[in-house]
Write a structure and sequence with these properties.
Elements: H1 2-24, H2 30-58, H3 65-78, H4 81-86, H5 96-119, E1 123-125, E2 131-133, H6 139-157, H7 164-186, H8 193-211, H9 224-236, E3 241-248, H10 251-258, H11 260-277, E4 283-286, E5 291-297, H12 301-319, E6 328-335, H13 343-362
Antiparallel strand pairs: 1-2, 3-5, 3-6, 4-5
Length: 371
Amino acid sequence: MTASISTDVLAIVALCFTIYLAKRNPIVNNYKNKIYMSAAVITIILLILEITTILMELSSNNNLLIPHRIANIMGFSLSPAVPFIFSFFNNKENRIVHNRILAVPLFFNAFMCVLSYKTGWIFFVNAQNQYSRGNLFLLPMIISMFYFVLMIIAINKNTAEYEIDDKKVLISVFVMPILGTILQIIFRDLLLIWGTVSISLLLYYIFLRELQFKYDVQTGIKNRSAFEKEMERYLKGDKNAALIVLDINNLKRNNDKYGHKAGDETIVHAAKIIEESFIGIGETFRIGGDEFCVICEEISMDLVDTALSKLDHLLTEINEKRNVKIVLAYGYASYNKNESESIYSIFAQADKAMYGHKAKLKGFYGRRIDD
């Protein structure tokens, strides 16, 4: 028991340090940063509750009966919350209904834990302040493993964000708490769950730091380095793709007129609109200051046209509320592995088409427009 307390204290210190680092320098993007910190904070709370229940059980003070039961209720209720929060890492869309459905087991578990204060279904603390497992002790652990398995499935399906090597690392990281849970179920005296969850969080933090090299800090989408790596994959592979090149019109002029802060805001909003327009069908990259490219693997040009129509609609909506208008020029071309010279020649075609659209938007034809 003393060893478990020491391990938990070390885990708390390490997680506090990563939270400090995440606040000081966000990982990947603000969305993922907030989720990581939320998961880390809840894990710290659970570690503190675990230490508290261990100390209360070691004490012979019967006056601790009520706080001992309350601490167990909180601990078992919050247990599935960490893997539930982790499931949001792969949620790029605003799927409120989907998230509410996923939250049902979480709230059911909390309800059963509260009832256990009297019924002893999940746990029981007797009059002598001694803890024992209830008949439904496995319920919080099964729900936690359910969320972890869902997350592993989501990681495996997320081909746009994670490469094969990334998936192997992530799946290994999140299998660890599952193994810890299984061992704790088999060996009653072992307290492994929150130690393994803490290790998983620390490893995930390191993974996100490494992943950050692939992302543009300002917009949160993948950067030029990730784009070049993706293009190399098409050079060596056998997949078809559509390339859409986009550029922000009048950015230099708006920077001069409204300031660079307004220009930076325009870039961020443009990136979000592009990503939202192509979500589920393509990966968005920032390849230059105000240049973007979307790569859509094995997709029909009809779907590309639909995405661009959505893009125009979103631009119209957001520009109604903005003083500094966002105007995006775009062009696209289709890469066929059997017919095209190379993916880079197709990129050049899409880039040329984009400048044609840019000229049309500005009322100029027959020459390259640089802004």
